[in-house]
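SAMPLE LOG
Freezer: B-3
Tube label: C17
Construct: single chain, 396 aa
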Amino acid sequence: GLAYWQEQTRSSTDDAVAALDARRQNLYRAVVYGLKLEQTRRETAVVILQAFHLAERRGYWHEWIPLIQNAAAACPPDEPLLRAGLLNRLGELYLTSRQLPAAIESHLQAETILKQTGEDQQRANHLRANELRHHIWSNLSMDYAFSRQYDLAEQYGQQALAGFRATNAPPKFHANVLNALGVVAWWRGQHDRAETLLREAVAIWRELNQFTDLLRSLNNLMGTLKAARKYDDVWPCYAEAVTYFSHNVGEYEKSLIEVSYGGALYEQGQYDEAKAAFQRANSPYLQQSSYFYHRATVAQCLGNTFLAQNRLADAAPHLEESARLWRQFDDELMLANTLGTIAELYAQQGKADDAIALFEQALALLARYPDDAWAKKLTADFTRQLQEQKTAVNPE
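STRUCTURE (predicted):
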């Protein structure tokens, strides 16, 4: 049975993942059973590693995180590369589910195992060990980017890129790290650099026909172009992205694209069109999924749009839902944005004291992100509005 599943999970293309998705319960049962028997644990770990893309792309991390934890814990001492590989993938699932400290810890553990691996084993598996080390660094770059520790994100990303180039690694590895470095540059406000890196990543995924990864990098490129107010460059990215929706890509990636598109429309004052995009993003699939972080983003976007249309009663529940979810993820920057938006809502309702209290809360959270371009912009916006509310309460 494990030999069969090793064969079935060998390919990580979008079509292969979609085919595997239809039989995921059978695969899951085989893996659970295989981990119980000492004689089959190694072969089961190979299946888990190969099936990783199913769990990561289709949002099954709650089922698969315990499996990978168990597989890593049960790994034989003479298989350090296998254990490091499992911890590397475990860290990726932690990142996807926004468990950032756990993601960093898992990837650092994997890196430590490689450092401690004996020279004989390193020589015997030289290429595999090097590729894994560089992959771990690439993942740490993204971990630290999402944790908004941009210096560390840049450091690990550059190490990974240099390593992949030195070993002439497959193009997909280059694309992954270019995407991570592009995100770091975007969030630091280095828009020209971000655009260059992300366009390079997009070109590689396009060449490889890896549509899920292509949509993810296109989404980041759209976010960068929007931040740089290059709206005329956003529309072609969206038009291209939509052409890939007919392939076996995930609903999550489609939702990401709609949110970026809707955000650009919103900033252009096209609120009805923006709302339509956000409602497409807020699909039945998303509402029933484990993508809670993205659900919070979509709720925030809908709340913003209703607020811009002066539909205050419609805006309030979306913004409150978004704030509830951000608290669950301990994401203080996103929470600050939502609290500031709720403060704007209170201001429009004439509740100046409530607005002042929330603006002050939001600004206290934003002060913790001095290196983030968006945090700087929000700080300026909320500081101005806070002064307006204080002036309204005490005109003299």
